[in-house]
Write a structure and sequence with these properties.
This protein is of the alpha/beta class. Helices cover 26% and strands 21% of the residues. It is built from 15 helices and 24 strands. It has helices spanning 12-16, 35-42, 64-67, 84-89, 105-112, 140-145, 196-206, 221-231, 247-254, 279-287, 297-300, 303-307, 343-352, 411-420, 427-437, and strands at residues 24-26, 51-55, 75-79, 96-97, 117-122, 130-132, 149-154, 169-171, 177-180, 214-217, 239-245, 270-275, 292-294, 312-317, 320-322, 327-328, 331-332, 335-336, 357-361, 365-367, 373-375, 377-378, 396-399, 402-405. The strands form 6 sheets. The chain has an 8-stranded mixed β-sheet, sandwiched between helices. A 7-stranded parallel β-sheet has the order 4-3-2-1-5-7-9. α4 links the parallel β3 (75-79) and β4. It is globular. It starts with 11 loop residues before the first helix and ends with a helix. 50% of the residues are buried.
Length: 439
């Protein structure tokens, strides 16, 4: 059957000719990355002008259109969410950041922005011409259905799962061009050993999690430490409905804790939009596809869907919070560190869930390069920094000094709660500010 698509198979260099000056080109999100098409497009430097590339959360070590054209004479790179590699480019002015909330991204592509060419990484096709979306479902279907030209890049290293109900698959007939070739190993992301503070925060959060909880875990040290503790705990029948599935969930699976048995939706399966972690994580996804329900942003990031599951628990990190509960999750002053991403989606889902809890986890303080200790709980979010989540969306805050619930509290009560989990060195000055401003 694949013979009928033979004419669509071209070299990356031929497919890259579909990009015209002035085009918007989409690369996708997360660990799935169109490396062959990126290289071929970069080789067209000087042939085209004003080509704008969109991507985000890039964890591979390079983007060729950026590396080969630092003068931006042909290409400009735009990011929805600053990843590890993109962060290193910021000081050079080579990344343009676009704020967004992830659950709104599909509607941005449907109604508000244009895409000319989509470079879609896919797995090897089966004998019927169906491919999986590998480790990055993202909003790919919405994007390529609105694109002028669609290029499928077959990556032989991607897991071939297509979703139990086809939620993670595309068909070769949907592409204008298909390219293939040898790829580098999939990009991996690891974790640093948890600090004593991370461990204490995780202990505080784990004490709040019930049997049968459905987990959404952010990618970071505290969520991973929470998962390791849950793996060693007496809890059972935990579930997964998360934006990014990571080694945290692999640890729970290996401990026999991740059964998904009590989920009212997708029972027996872990639900996710992106996969990001070790090669062992990708191997697990490839070896046991029946355990997963990968889905697009519209499905996975829907607070309405999360609300239908009991005991939905969302755990994410933050940069700083103020005394009313406003959270900065993504900037250091005006420097963009990451993005809002899906944090608001899962906080809202937890709010709506019966027994649900949404946690923002943050170290109470930090020590600067100069050895000065500064509080991460501040009187107010300072000018230049971003309010990623409004105070009305924050339910629980956890530091190494405890957990407080802010929902339902007055401004003064919120301030008192936040001061109780601040670093002791800063409690007096925070209390003085609260006394003066929340009368």
């Amino acid at each position: 059957m694949l013979e009928q698509f033979k004419e669509k198979f071209v070299s990356p260099e031929v497919a890259a000719k579909a990009v015209r000056s002035g085009d918007w080109v989409d690369y996708g999100f997360g660990g799935g990355f169109p490396e062959l098409m990126d290289r071929a497009l970069a080789a067209r430097k000087g042939e085209v002008t004003d080509v704008k590339i969109r991507g985000g959360l890039v964890i591979r070590p390079r983007i060729e259109v950026v590396e080969q054209d630092p003068e931006q004479s042909s290409f400009s790179y735009y990011s929805w969410h600053i990843g590890d590699y993109e962060r290193r480019l910021q000081s050079q002015g080579l990344v343009k950041f676009m704020p967004m909330i992830l659950r709104f991204l599909p509607d941005l592509y449907r109604f508000h922005i244009k895409v000319d060419v989509a470079f879609v990484p896919v797995s090897r096709p089966d004998d019927r011409g169906y491919c999986g979306l590998g480790i990055s479902n993202y909003a790919w279907r919405v994007i390529f259905e609105n694109a002028r030209t669609v290029v499928f890049e077959i990556n032989e290293r991607l897991p071939t799962l297509q979703g139990v109900d086809g939620s993670h698959r595309v068909h070769l007939s949907e592409a204008d061009y298909i390219v293939e070739g040898e790829h580098e190993p999939l990009p991996v992301r690891g974790y640093k050993a948890p600090s004593s503070t991370d461990i204490q925060i995780a202990k505080n959060v784990v004490a709040e999690i019930p049997d049968g909880a459905v987990l959404s875990l952010g990618v970071g040290g505290v969520p991973f430490t929470v998962a390791q503790m849950l793996a060693e705990s007496g809890l059972s029948d935990l579930g997964c409905h998360t934006g990014t599935i990571s080694d945290a969930f692999l640890a729970l699976h290996r401990a026999g804790k991740l059964t998904n048995r009590r989920k009212e939706i997708d029972a027996g399966r872990s639900t996710w939009n992106l996969a990001m972690g070790s090669q062992e994580l990708y191997d697990w996804i490839a070896a046991e596809p029946q355990l997963f329900r990968p889905g697009d942003v519209d499905y996975v990031h829907s607070p309405e869907r999360m609300a239908k599951m009991s005991n939905f628990i969302s755990i994410n990190g933050g940069v700083q919070l103020d005394l009313t509960g406003q959270e900065n999750a993504e900037t250091a002053g005006t420097r963009q560190l990451s993005g809002t991403g899906g944090q608001l989606d899962f906080l809202e889902g937890a709010y709506r869930s019966k027994g649900g809890k949404g946690f923002i986890c943050v170290n109470s303080s930090r020590v600067t390069k100069d050895g000065e200790r500064k509080s991460n709980i501040v009187p107010f979010i300072s000018g230049g920094s971003t309010v990623s989540a409004p105070r009305t969306m924050i339910q629980y805050v956890a530091t190494e000094y405890g957990v407080v619930k802010l929902s339902g509290l007055t401004l003064r009560e919120r301030a008192q709660a936040m001061i109780s989990i601040a670093h002791p060195d800063f409690r007096d000055e925070l209390a003085e500010y609260a006394q003066e401003n929340f009368k």
